[in-house]
Design brief:
This protein is of the alpha/beta class. The protein has six helices and five strands, in the order H-E-H-E-H-E-H-H-E-H-E.
Length: 151
């Protein structure tokens, strides 16, 4: 991270934040380091939902967080792609490949309804927010959170 990126990752003042920039400028690395700094230096932050659109990006994020020794799971960072979050909300496997638009509209409708009863997170980090539809963002935003969202 450069100095500016690190200052963004370290800054914690609660509330919603949007981090914008072109592809390849380091937004994902800022979010990964934000998760690291929240877990390491903010005792109020116990659970973090880190959600992205790209399925393969999940493994990259998990690998970098593991290298930083960030805990995963219930008392750590929960890294998922959007349809994996829908799996959890619906308690059923969402087939996210080779499906038509009607299938995904139904998944979104059901996930939006189910998200109202979801577990609480202290912070939510959304990577690739530009790829989320309004309804997808509503699903994530309905997931109860206590502190901040950074997109």
């Amino acid at each position: 991270l450069d100095h500016h990126q690190e200052s963004l990752a370290r800054k914690y003042d609660g509330g919603h934040r949007i981090l914008k920039g072109p592809s390849g400028c380091g937004k994902t690395l800022v979010l990964i380091n934000k998760a690291f700094f929240l877990k390491r230096y903010n005792p109020k932050i116990k659970t973090i939902l880190f959600v992205c659109f790209n399925i393969t990006l999940v493994n990259y994020i998990r690998r970098i967080l593991a290298e930083k020794r960030v805990p995963f799971g219930k008392n750590g960072v929960d890294v998922v792609h959007f349809y994996e979050l829908c799996d959890r909300l619906l308690k059923d496997k969402v087939e996210f490949e080779k499906q038509d638009g009607d299938y995904f509209r139904l998944v979104l409708e059901e996930a939006l309804e189910s998200s109202k009863n979801q577990e609480k997170y202290d912070a939510i980090l959304i990577d690739e927010g530009q790829d989320f539809s309004d309804d997808m963002l509503r699903v994530v935003m309905n997931t109860d959170f206590r502190s901040s969202i950074l997109i």
